[in-house]
Amino acid sequence: MRTGRPKAALVMSPDERRELESLAHRSRSAPTIARRARIVLACAEGRENKTVARRLRMSPVTRV
């Protein structure tokens, strides 16, 4: 059983998704921007925060 507030769905347009995917995979992007883009994309898939952190190999309390 889940506790706490329900998580609101993260909805983005196809253009927004395309832009984030470009930022996440562009080799010349600043590493922090690419990391943030990967976090947002993973959250848009409906994944839990801990799952996103584990998948991206970062701490759940990472500040970006």
A few lines on this structure:
With 64 residues, the protein is mostly helical. It is built from three helices and no strands. It is flat and about 40 Å long.
Supply database-style keywords.
64 residues, mainly alpha, 0% strand
Strand-helix topology:
Layout: H1 14-25, H2 31-44, H3 49-55
Helix pairs in contact: 1-2
What would you say this structure looks like, in words?
With 64 residues, this protein is mainly α. Helices cover 52% and strands 0% of the residues. The longest helix has 14 residues, at 31-44.
Q: Can you tell me the overall shape?
A: flat
Distance between the termini: 30 Å
Runs with pLDDT <50, length 5+?
A: none
User: Which oligomeric form is depicted?
Assistant: single chain
* Estimated share of beta-strand residues: under 5%
* Total helical segments: 3
The beta-strand count equals: 0
Q: What is the mean predicted local confidence, pLDDT?
A: 86
Tell me the series of helices and strands, N- to C-terminal. Answer: HHH
Largest sheet: none
Any idea what the radius of gyration is?
Answer: 13 Å
Structural class: mainly alpha
Helix content: 40-55%
